[in-house]
């Protein structure tokens, strides 16, 4: 006998029997009714071993993710150790440079004013020269900013009298007054910290700001005092033509040198118009610095602020 399930009825066909259509609930045998219901509602059967295969895939996925996490942790540790080493090298080099200049001062080779301006000229660009040693992560950027931040904290503690530090006062201040450390020198460290945290090494604005503030302004004072007597600017009796020329040339030369230096490490890209733009920014900063009789803001604030605005706009 052949049984076929239809939509609402059961058709039964047998050998030598007449065709009849009846309702499945009219069948007298309960076992047959259950068989017909099961025939109409087939049950899905999972392939053998499918459950074990899913567990295996899940295990391999978790194992792979665990390996990726461990690999990332290892890379992070290596990056932090590398950045810590770069910070140590930077601080050591800065201490050696300052110590060398102070030795020249003690030996009488240079006077105190020249010693102070030499530190002003080379400290910032020297700090940027060690940027390629650091990694390219936000943590590396924060670690790099530790150097100017520590120097700024040292100046603040010494200048405010919270810590006795006669060496820093005598080395940095002009008159021996500790309150001088809370002005130009402290602004200097703050600018370097902000340049590191906000601009960093892929932005050429950081190069221009540091070069003009450090190399340009430092050389302007050194050259102006030596060759500027009787060659004052028409609109300023405290600024000279040689000093302003030294600021323009020194800032532009240092910015160009650092740009090429960063380009060697693949940190920045540049063309001939980059240097033309830097020349314009350096000229604008030089003109602003020469207006000290009209603008009472410290040039360690006004010059970096103008250079930053122009750099973000033009570079």
What distance lies between the first and last C-alpha atoms, to the nearest angstrom?
91 Å
Largest sheet: 3 strands, antiparallel
What letter string, H or E per element, gives the SSE order?
EEEHHHHHHHHEEHHH
List low-confidence stretches. 1-28, 49-53
How would you characterize the overall build of this protein?
The chain has 315 residues and is mostly helical. Helices cover 67% and strands 6% of the residues. The chain is built from eleven helices and five strands, in the order βββααααααααββααα. It has helices at residues 30-40, 50-106, 112-129, 138-144, 146-159, 166-172, 184-199, 204-227, 241-264, 272-289, 299-314, and strands at 2-5, 10-13, 20-22, 232-233, 236-240. Helix 2 runs antiparallel to helix 3 (112-129) and helix 7 packs antiparallel against helix 8 (204-227). Residues 1-28 and 49-53 have low confidence and may be disordered.
Short description:
This protein is mainly alpha-helical and 315 residues long.
Kindly list the characteristics that best describe this protein.
315 residues; mainly alpha; 3-stranded antiparallel beta sheet; two-stranded antiparallel sheet; 5 strands; 6% strand; globular; disordered N terminus
